[in-house]
Amino acid sequence: MADVLVLGSGFAGLWAALAAARRIDELGASGVDVTVVSSQPYHDIRVRNYEPDLTDCRIPLSDVLDPAGVAHVAADVTAIDPAAHTVTTSVGERRYDRLVVALGSAVAIPDIPGLREFGFDVDTYDGAMTLQAHLDGLSARSTVVVVGAGLTGIETACELAGRFRVVLVDRNPRVGSDMGESARPVIERALAANGVETRCGAGVVAVDRDTATLSTGEVVTASTVVWCAGMRASGVTASLGVPLDPLGRVAVDDYLRVSGLDGVFAAGDVAAARMDDEHLSVMSCQHGRPMGRYAGYNAVSDLLTAPMLPLRIPWYVTVLDLGPWGAVYTEGWGRTVVATGADAKATKNTINRERIYPPRTGSRADLLAAAAPDLQSRPTAEG
Ligand SMILES: Cc1cc2nc3c(=O)[nH]c(=O)nc-3n(C[C@H](O)[C@H](O)[C@H](O)COP(=O)(O)OP(=O)(O)OC[C@H]3O[C@@H](n4cnc5c(N)ncnc54)[C@H](O)[C@@H]3O)c2cc1C
């Protein structure tokens, strides 16, 4: 018996596991088990955590893994020993023949007085639900401070602006500093139309139950601070003993193999893969899902000495939700705006509600078909 172990059940992990099951089928192999190890028995649609209704954002893994014959172990992974081919978890040690590391990332919460005690985030389903329960107890006149005017912070601020006074704080001189010259004016227009106040060139230096103190000295009366600044790959990558990039990611080759290690693949936010000759993967579900599919396919191919497939993705888009105003859709690494407002919002809705979901028919054939190592075409204005 041989074991393919997939760590994580997010956008990379789920698709790695299904792709591994598919490749075993395709090669007509027997005696290879695929097992997912992740903290909770769910596939979370993490990208929707800023939305107000999360009822359809948590998919039981049994619905999507059982039909494909993939096992799940609910456990926290604490370390990987690539020399011994073992993984340490909260329920014991597991041996692997091939490993796919897909443990994702987490928002980095800095050591700001009061932030851990009183702050909120939309990083995980549980975090987003805790925030929503807190918001449900607030009056509409309350102020919410959102920290970090990157993609997650902008989406969160725009969504909350319909319900509360929202103050968006960022250390950079302007909002959406990564979004480029073409999209930034659109974002600024949408924030203004949504009534979001901005404080640029400022950080939050202290938080308590009722206030957020900014580095400018301003004290904002707010019982809610939502931290959306800075992502970091899972700390478990450190146990691999290979160099990490500034985001904590391991380098992988075109086959998603962790450089310098035998039998270890990585996908999603824990891995930096080359998307084309100039660009590395971005921490995103856009890249995480195909990385997962190729990692799962290649892990089994490598195990069974079958040909592997290289991954390169020739397109890059960003579709940013701007709340009631709509959305902005950009193409290319320079993020050129191609659609705004309601048109872009329709695309965003299709992505968030259909495109990134696994089939939920309970059919093995549907799940394995969706796990093919093909690149989805870029979303269109129609979705
Ligand atoms: C609010 C928000 C909005 C976003 N919007 C977009 C967007 O519009 N477009 C886009 O492309 N990306 C977006 N992202 C980023 C996207 O969600 C991530 O890049 C994506 O989830 C990465 O997929 P992943 O599988 O690598 O990690 P994740 O989806 O985070 O999955 C990690 C998995 O590993 C498990 N895990 C983690 N640590 C352990 C451990 N120690 N032991 C066991 N299990 C563990 C988790 O439970 C989970 O199952 C957004 C993120 C957020 C928070």
From TrEMBL:
<keyword id="KW-0560">Oxidoreductase</keyword>
<feature type="domain" description="FAD/NAD(P)-binding">
    <location>
        <begin position="3"/>
        <end position="286"/>
    </location>
</feature>
<keyword id="KW-0285">Flavoprotein</keyword>
<dbReference type="InterPro" id="IPR051169">
    <property type="entry name" value="NADH-Q_oxidoreductase"/>
</dbReference>
<dbReference type="InterPro" id="IPR023753">
    <property type="entry name" value="FAD/NAD-binding_dom"/>
</dbReference>
<dbReference type="Pfam" id="PF07992">
    <property type="entry name" value="Pyr_redox_2"/>
</dbReference>
<comment type="similarity">
    <text>Belongs to the NADH dehydrogenase family.</text>
</comment>
<dbReference type="InterPro" id="IPR036188">
    <property type="entry name" value="FAD/NAD-bd_sf"/>
</dbReference>
<keyword id="KW-0274">FAD</keyword>
<protein>
    <submittedName>
        <fullName>FAD-dependent oxidoreductase</fullName>
    </submittedName>
</protein>
